[in-house]
Amino acid sequence: MTTETEEPTLTVDELAARAGVTVRTVRFYSSRGLLPPPVIGPRRVGHYGPEHLARLALIEELQHQGMTLAAIERYLQQLPADLSARDLALHRAVVASWAPDAVETMTREELERRAGRPLREEDLERLGAMDVVAPHEGAFRVDPGLLRLGVQLLDVPLALESILAARRVLIEHSRAAARELSQLFRDAVAERDATAVKSLSAHMHPLVVQALLTAFQRSLKQELREWLTDARPAPES
Description:
This is MerR family transcriptional regulator. Keywords: DNA-binding. Residues 9-78 form the HTH merR-type domain. The protein is mainly α. The chain contains 10 helices and 5 strands. Strands 3-5-4 form a 3-stranded antiparallel beta sheet. A two-stranded antiparallel sheet has the order 1-2. The longest helix has 38 residues, at 194-231.
């Protein structure tokens, strides 16, 4: 497992497995310039890191939106080349916000392929508690917008109760923000016709999501910085 502060350590096979794609797909994307080249290590073996994994997730999300390969290439070319895995995850979240809510029915094999890893019964129970998957007639009903997030949370060293409590906080405050923003926009376009309101809504949706994500990321970073500062032991006198 890698983090943003570690050197790339995934082989192409491991990267493909984590991303839920084939090695052939990884090589194809690399040949088209959609993925940056790997770091070449001993024995001329290429190693990949979290940025490659995050970029694959973004490509997958763009495909789910119905974008052609050429359109995906143009989209990625507009992004700064040095985006971190965290920044790429933010872009993916914004892209995912364009899609309507949807639930897919998958076999366990397809679910594990999309998750990029085998799933134990304990993993399925945790994903079920987070409302990511639910058993359904011998298969699973899956929220694809939450699947990658839910799978990543499986490796977070927090008790399930803490994760569910955090989920409740996020839902409560995001709904409150959505209500206040919706009221603000309704007041701003009260005199316009329905077509203009619908057009404005479609235009503002991804912009508002990106603004919320960016604002939350910066606020969380500041809170964590203050928390870590307060947690440092006082210097000895």
